[in-house]
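Practice problem: predict the structure.
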Amino acid sequence: MFCQLYERDALARLVSRLVRLDPRGRELVAPEHRAGSPAVLLVGGRGTGKTALLNRLAETYGTHLPLARVDLEEPGYGEFDPGESGRDGLSSPVTDLLHVLVHQLRHKVRGLQLRFPRTELGLLAVISWQPARPEELRRAFNRVATLITEDEQERRQRQGEVDEAVAEVVEAIAEAGMPLGAEAAASVITLFLRRLRARPQPKARDWWASTRPGGGGYAEALRHLGGDFHRGGDRRTRAELLLVKALLYDMREPYLGLRKAIHGVRPLVLLDNAHTADGRHFLGLLVRARARIAAETGRSDPLAVVAAAHGDPAGLPALTAAGRSSGWEPPGPEDAAGWRLDLGIPPLSLEAVEAMLEDSDPPHQLARLILRLTGGNPLGVRAFARAAAGRLATGEELDFAELPALPAESGGRPVAEELLEALLPDAGQRERLVTLSAAYDTAAAHHLAGLHLVEGPSHMPVEEVTQHLAEAHWPPPGTPFVADPLLRFLLLQRLRTRAPGPHRPSWADSQLTLRSRYLLTRRDTSIGTDVSTHLHHSMALGETVLAARLLHQAFVGADAHDWLDSLQRICCAPRPPGGFPPLGSAPRVGGPDVCTADIDEYQRSIHRSIDLLMDALWRQSDPTAPPDEALIRRIDAQLLFLAPQRAGGQDVFFRAHLSWPRQLRSWAQAPHLTLTS
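Answer:
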C-alpha cells in the first residue's frame, strides 16, 4: 500500500493500530493501548511528503471505515462557501470544522454509519442563541440540516421539506425574540428536529444536562452553551471545548448497521496543515477534551486522528521508528498535552533514492548525488529522480551538471524551476530570495537589498523574507544567508538563468555588488574573512587570478588553520553561469595581476601548486559534482607538497592531506572539510 512513499510504511503500521484495522480492510489489529490512543502529529518541512502521506491514508482506509480528510488551509475547509464562515457571527472556525467533520464521518461505509446527536444539539444551540437576519439563520440551519438528513441523495429528495423546516424555525425565532430563553431554545431545536423526522435523543439530552452540575436540564445547558459561545474570549473557548467533547462522546456510541466482523473499528480523521492557527486551536481542544473523557470514564474516545504540520522535526521521535511501537503511553489525568504524539518525518535514505531510480538503470553515483542535492527531501528527490529517468529513457548520457536544467516530469520546464516554485509558492518572496541568494551572510544581504530591492512601500525586504522563511519553517538565515542547501542551490540556479530586469539583477550584477562590500587595498597581504569573501564572489564571476595571487602572498605569514579556512570559503563559491573557467590562472608577465611573490622558480612552483589546489577544490565543491578521483588526487598531492614549504603549521597541512581526500571521497565538500586525525 505504501511502497511508493518509500520508508513511510511505518505510518501504515502505526495507523492500523490506531484504527484497529489492517490497510486491506480484512483483519482486525490489536491497539497498542486499550485505554486509548494519542492524536498523532506528523512534523516536517515543505516537500517532506506530509500531504502525500495523508492522501495515501485516505485512499487506503476511505472504503473501510468512516473517514474525514480536511485541509485546514483550504477556504471553507473545502466543504462550504468560505464567505459563510463566521461572517454573521453564528459560527467560528471550530464550529465550521465540526460541521465538516460530522458531514464526512457520517457517510455510510461498508454498512456502518455514525450518528452525532450531542454535536447536532450543540451546533443548533449556538445558532439559536444569537440574533441574526432571517437569511443568515436560514443559511446556518441549512448547514445543520445537511448533518441530520440521512445522506446527500436523501437530502436532495427532501429539499422541499428541509426548506419548510428551516423557514418555520426562523419564523419561530423571530416571534420569540432574541436571545431565546432556555425553554424557547429547546422548543425551537425540537421543532427543527421533528420537521426533519428526528428528535433529541434521550442520551444526548442527558449528556448535555450533565455538563451543568447546577441542574436546569439540557435546555438550560444548551442556553448557557450558546451564551458562552457568543460572548467570545475564554467563554467561547469553553463552549468550543464542550462541542469538541460532544463530538468525541458521540464517537463512543455503537455504529448503526454494526456488523460483528468489524466490531471495534475506529473512525479516522486526517487534518492537513495543522500548523495554522485553526489547526493549533482545534488540536488543543481535542487533547483537552480527550483527557477529560479519559478522566471521567477511564478510557478515551475511539477517534483516530492523524494531523500534519510544517515544522522542524529535529529532536522529535522519527516516524520511521514508530512502525513496531509508537513509544507512547497513556498520560496522567492532568496531562492533556500527553494525548498528542509528535513524530518527525525524517529525510529519505540512500536506499529509498536508489529504489526510486531502479527502473531507469541509473549511472553510478546518481542516487548519492540526488541525496546530497536534496538532503533527502522527498519532493526534491522525486523531482530530480523523475527528471533523470526521463533523460535516461531517451538513451542519452546524463551530465550531472545538467541535472537542474532537465525537463521536469510534468513538461518542458526545468526541474529546478518547478521544484523551487513548489518549495516557495509565494512568487514575490521567491524572486526576492533569488536576488539575495548569493549573499554570504545577513549583512551582505542587506547590502544587496539596498541597491537592488528598494521597491514600493517596503524598505525592509531582508526582514520580510526572513519572516517568510520562518513562517515556512525553513532554517533561519546564517552563513550563507540562505542556510538550507537545497533551497540555496535552487535559488542560485534561478539567479543564473533568469532574465534581468527592474529589481531583478543578473548573476554578474549580484556578485559584483556583493564583492564591492569587501574592499581590497593594494597592501592587502592577509587572507581574512573580508578578503576571502571578496575572492569568493570573484570566483563566482569566473575570475580566479586574484584569488591565486592573494592565497600565495598570504601562504607563508598566515596561520595555517586560517589559510585553509579561507581556501575553503573561496572554493565553495558557486559555479559561474558559463561553467568553470579553464585551469591556468598563472600571472601574465608584466601584467597588472603579476604575483609579487613569484620572484624565482621556487616561488612559481608554490604559486602553481596553490593554483592547482584551488581549482581542484572549487570544481570538487560544486553541488552537482560527485567525488572525482583525479581531482581528489590532485588536492592530496598539492597539500602534501605545500606542507613542508611553510616555516610553521606544516602539521596542519599534513593533517589536511590525510583527512580531506578521505572526506571528499565520502561526499563532503568545502566549506565543511575538517582536520580530523
